[in-house]
Please model this.
Amino acid sequence: MTGRKIDTGLVEGGRRKEWRGRLVNVPVERASTILFDDVNDLHASGPGLGKYRYGLQGTATHWALSEALTELEPGAAGTVLYPSGLAAVSAPLLTLLSPGDELLVPDNIYGPTRRFCETILKRMTIRARYYDPLVGSGIAGMITDSTRAILLESPGSLTMEVQDVPAIAAVARERRIVTILDNTWATPLLFRAIGAGVDISVLAATKYVGGHADVMLGAATASGEYFQKIETATWDLGFATSPDDAWLGSRGLRTMAVRLRQHEMSALRVAEWLKERPEVGLVLHPALPDCPGHEIWKRDFEGSSGLFTFELKGADTAVRAKFVDSLRLFGIGYSWGGYESLVLPVDPVRTVSKPPASNLVRLHIGLEDADDLIADLDQAFDQAGR
Ligand SMILES: Cc1ncc(COP(=O)(O)O)c(C=O)c1O
Model:
């Protein structure tokens, strides 16, 4: 059904009667072998949404999640699932690039994506050239005859710069260059990537889709020109996503809108409180004016989520470590997007642009009471002697 509001799509999406029977949820269908009635049936088999063939091509559990995610990006042709968010970036790049090609990459790209470019792509003589995340339509000046793809991530990792995605996508379209956006922070609830002109929108579903810090999962939602290519290549590469993990993705998706609204509200309260603290310099939250690209966020996004970064003014790394170690409600660990709050000292790696600040601390604001989180940060500032 098209035209229904996004919260309804999150509840209804992918829950076809033929897949769920009388249950509310499409169950976990675990399968390698699919049995056919006869040879005709065998030869007529899938692949494709709703067509059983072999475990690699998925079961109803996968199709339900793919269909629900596709509905969130009007104009998309389909969604391919991956065993992690990183795989949802790396597999489309492996599929669409050839030796000698060039790829443009924002300088604040998620670290392991940069590493993939500098190791596996480099070995294949695919060259990553890094650009200032704030380049906007100036990206046109970086394109050469070898440029085949532009990677985007908005807001970008650690320093949160918001990119002018529609401007970059428009330049790329004109030059017939594929665009791949890591849309994990916003999800399609806060930024509709395909509608903004992006060809492939990637989610680390490990974060807000899963929402409970208990699953590794990725998804790439693509326009008609690219969906079939990346789907077929996923089978060629032999990447199978566990049906249990796909099921956890669907389970998380049903409540994603309400969780995101709470993450947004609490993160804004904490960010605004931090802004008033004497120990804090820049607060790099896309909804606050300190964040580079804030005006673009206001123009393009429906809201904000729970992840942001702030600068500990004048502190050294030892003071930063003491501050982080003193927090009680914030777990120290990688990833984000779960129901729980997290903290990480972060040091961006840049090659062509300067980070807006140094001595940074990244917070993911979870679903705890914001007053408790603020009290915890307050006592950690005291402990760190700041
Ligand atoms: C922006 C972004 N993209 C992609 C990923 C990778 O996702 P995964 O951990 O599922 O591989 C992460 C993980 O932290 C991330 O922060």
Remarks:
- The mean pLDDT is 97.
- The CA atoms of residues 6 and 189 lie 7 Å apart.
- The radius of gyration is 21 Å.
- The chain is about 35% helix and 15% strand.
